[in-house]
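Before relying on records like the one below, remember that each one covers exactly one chain. Contacts with other chains, cofactors or solvent are not represented anywhere in the record.
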Amino acid sequence: MEIIENTMVTDIIKKSLNTSMSYDEYRTLVTNLVEAQSTTGKEKTEALVEYTKMNDRRMKRWDKTVKLSDAAQEKITAYSKNITWIVLTESWCGDAAHIMPVINKVAEQNEAIDLKVVLRDDNEDLMNQFLTNGGKSIPKLIMVDNDTNTVVDTFGPRPAIATEMVNTYKAQHGRLTPEFKEDLQRWYNKDKGQSTIEDLVNLLS
């Protein structure tokens, strides 16, 4: 478990939390953006608007269907430290559409977990502290100990198994093709959030 003690990072996190949303507020925002034919983020391209529309449907489905095993439920509810999960995301992000409902489902099981959502493009200072291989990949979950105001761990932008799939494909082909991205979406659908649940439970262990 990586512990980050840095006054600058703490101040950046506090600033971002001041403009954060609950998960329900984030879902309402995305639904409203769909109705307005718009999207979060600095770019408002037609493609990103379509991704937001698709992701709203995905999140609606996962909000209803994500299931926790008894073993996962037990581990989540046993966690006793007061923490905040601050998650950087955007409405157009395909990975986030599959993962955000799962993060929320886990957080709902334990009052000690305070889930806050922030938009990546509105929180560049925070995003820049938690890059993945130098990139602003999302969703990115930052786990903060509320008693010490220190970052104790992170998760994202994908569950470990999906990350391995992406890294292997990139190593072989140099980039992620549209075909691979479709395969990844099918993997998410088949996995039903279970790999993400496993990684989040590990954060709490």
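Residues 52 and 91 are 5 Å apart (CA to CA).
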